[in-house]
């Protein structure tokens, strides 16, 4: 144990939620291995602080269920395809983390024993206690639920102290900062305000689930090198939702 670092850590167990698009880099589709490796290095740097980490990764870089259903595909089928896309992303992240020497488990809500573990809560908690990174794949295993909702559900089940939502911007703004120069960033904001203003942090069911269990959501920029580790060490720019 590194006595000088340990007391600085604000949270002991967290869930990192990132979109599938975060793994694309500058490409318009799919996986960009250097970007996956960069995010894996960020995760390792936080794990090295002694923090227990689990992850949920979206699938929008490969297939997005809502877009599929909008093009005439039956919604449940489209959603299951989206869930399978998240498994592909989880396996890519697992490979990147293990190349860095981080023991990682991919845990799927849809059983596929040849490639990953089925979701068993007690087993997943044990992995975290052993400082393994757990990547929860296939959403909740149900159609009509997003990976945001899956992240909030798993964070509650794992007794995480916060959800870290990695995005393209360094927090929650009152309007899109990429389009409006006068956009204002919130340091803190309530769950209800996020819902009432439709601020798009996460979908409404995910925000409501976090609110009902008083689980804070930390919104930060995944593009900021060292940002994830910095916030856990007590500095950096972010917005705290609720909690």
Automatic annotation (TrEMBL):
Pathway: Pyrimidine metabolism; CTP biosynthesis via de novo pathway; UDP from UMP (UMPK route): step 1/1
Enzyme Commission code: 2.7.4.22
Gene Ontology terms describing biological process: 'de novo' CTP biosynthetic process; UDP biosynthetic process
Alphabetical keyword list: Allosteric enzyme, ATP-binding, Cytoplasm, Kinase, Nucleotide-binding, Pyrimidine biosynthesis, Transferase
Domain Aspartate/glutamate/uridylate kinase: residue ranges: 12-221
Positions of UMP binding: 59, 79, 140-147
InterPro entries in the record: AceGlu_kinase-like_sf, Asp/Glu/Uridylate_kinase, Uridylate_kinase, Uridylate_kinase_bac
Compartments where located: Cytoplasm
Activation/inhibition comment: Allosterically activated by GTP. Inhibited by UTP.
GO cellular component annotations of the record: cytoplasm
Gene3D superfamilies: Acetylglutamate kinase-like
Main location: cytoplasm
Region described as Involved in allosteric activation by GTP: 25-30
Reaction catalysed by this enzyme: UMP + ATP = UDP + ADP
A GO molecular-function annotation: UMP kinase activity
Binding residues annotated for ATP, in chain numbering: 17-20, 60, 64, 167, 173, 176
Assembly behavior: Homohexamer.
HAMAP family cross-referenced by the UniProt entry: PyrH_B
Family per similarity comment: Belongs to the UMP kinase family.
Main function: Catalyzes the reversible phosphorylation of UMP to UDP.
Protein name stated in the entry: Uridylate kinase
Organism: Albidovulum denitrificans
């Amino acid at each position: 144990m590194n006595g000088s670092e340990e007391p600085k850590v604000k949270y002991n167990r967290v869930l990192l939620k990132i979109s599938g698009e975060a793994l694309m880099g500058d490409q318009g589709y799919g996986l960009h291995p250097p970007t996956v490796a960069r995010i894996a290095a960020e995760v390792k740097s936080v794990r090295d602080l002694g923090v227990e980490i689990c992850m949920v990764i979206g699938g929008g870089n490969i297939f997005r269920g809502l877009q599929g259903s909008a093009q005439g595909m039956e919604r449940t089928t489209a959603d299951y395809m989206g869930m399978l896309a998240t498994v592909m992303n989880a396996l890519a992240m697992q490979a990147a983390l293990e190349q860095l020497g981080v023991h990682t488990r991919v845990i799927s809500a849809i059983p596929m024993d040849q490639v990953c573990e089925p979701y068993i809560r007690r087993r997943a908690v044990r992995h975290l206690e052993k400082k393994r990174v757990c990547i929860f794949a296939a959403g909740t295993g149900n159609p009509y639920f997003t990976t945001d909702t899956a992240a909030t559900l798993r964070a509650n089940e794992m007794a995480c102290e916060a959800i870290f939502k990695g995005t393209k911007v360094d927090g929650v703004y009152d309007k899109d900062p990429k389009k409006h120069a006068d956009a204002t960033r919130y340091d803190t904001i309530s769950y209800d305000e996020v819902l009432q203003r439709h601020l798009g942090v996460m979908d409404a069911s995910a925000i409501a689930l976090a609110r009902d269990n008083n689980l804070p959501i930390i919104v930060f920029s995944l593009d900021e090198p060292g940002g994830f580790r910095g916030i856990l060490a007590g500095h950096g720019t972010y917005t705290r939702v609720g909690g």
